[in-house]
Amino acid sequence: MERAVYLGIEAVMGSKTEARVYAERGGGMMVSLVIPAEPSRFMIARSVVTAIAAQVGLPIDAIEDARLAVTECSNLLCALGRPDHLRVRMWLEGSELVLEVAAWAGADEWVVDPPTHALSWVIVSGLAETSWAPGTGGAAITTRWPALMVN
After folding, report:
1. Architecture of the CATH domain 5-146
2. Which of 111, 104, 103, 91 lies closest to 141 in space, CA to CA?
3. Which residues of 91-122 are buried (b: 16+ CB within 10 A; e: fewer)?
């Protein structure tokens, strides 16, 4: 992919920037959002997910499910590793909107297997096709949503 382009969208809380939205172009469009791993900041991710999901034509009930999924993925990652930041990325892959929530700068070792016992995992995996990717210093949860319109 080409270098990320800053879209000029920021959420400012007090005197510091809490979130920046980037778009990458190459094989397609990718939107990337980085926020502090604080539940009070998850509303920023929900708003961005809502806008992108609507743009690619997800039905209204799927948009609401995607909003819930980004919240539950964020909650789960914060509970498992106490990360500093979360990165939310969205991109089109075929006729699907892919939503990935990743954590980093938290625990050195993350759970290798998906945390299927956690309520947040049960909720998200019931809403969409869900996968778990542990890594060094972080982990990612990816969901896939069928899109009606692919531009």
Report:
1. 2-Layer Sandwich (3.30)
2. 103
3. bbeeebbbbbbbbbebeeebeeebbeebebbe
- For residue 81, what pLDDT band results from cuts at 50, 70 and 90? confident
Site of tokens 């990743």? 102
80 pLDDT band, cuts 50/70/90, is confident
Q: What is the DSSP string of 106-133?
A: S-SS--SS--TTSHHHHHHHHHSEEEEE
Which residue, among 44, 42, 46, 52, has the nearest Cα to 97 in the 3D structure? 52
Q: Domain-by-domain residue ranges, the chain? A: 5-146
> Considering the entire predicted model, what is its pTM?
0.80
| Mean pLDDT value of segment 52-60 | 88
Rounded distance, CA 106 to CA 68, Å? 23
